[in-house]
Each structure stands twice: as structure tokens, then as C-alpha cells.
Predict the 3D structure of the following.
Amino acid sequence: MEMGIIRGLITLSILVLFLGIWAWSWSRSRQADFDAASRLPLGDDNIPPAKENLKEQQS
């Protein structure tokens, strides 16, 4: 095999990998994850810490 063919196959495989990741990230099954992540900055900052964190703070 010539070097040009090998480079072309590597480029093609990277393109296919990129398109696969792109399709996976924009699939409808990921919609709930994206919605939850988009609401994180608007969440309540006054939530009390978990019990484990209280034990660490008291020590």
C-alpha cells in the first residue's frame, strides 16, 4: 500500500468517528441530559450540604 492510501484511510476513519460522535451527542436519547445540564446554572445555591459533608466540617 502506498502512503497516500494509508493517509486517506486514516482520514476517512477519523471523519466517520467524528460523524458518529456528532450523531450520538445530538440524538433524542441525550435530550434529557442536555436539558438537565442547561438548568444547572439556574439552580438554587442555598441547598444544604449532604450529611457526609456535615461530618467532614465538624471534624
Remarks:
- The radius of gyration is 23 Å.
- DSSP finds three helices and no strands in the chain.
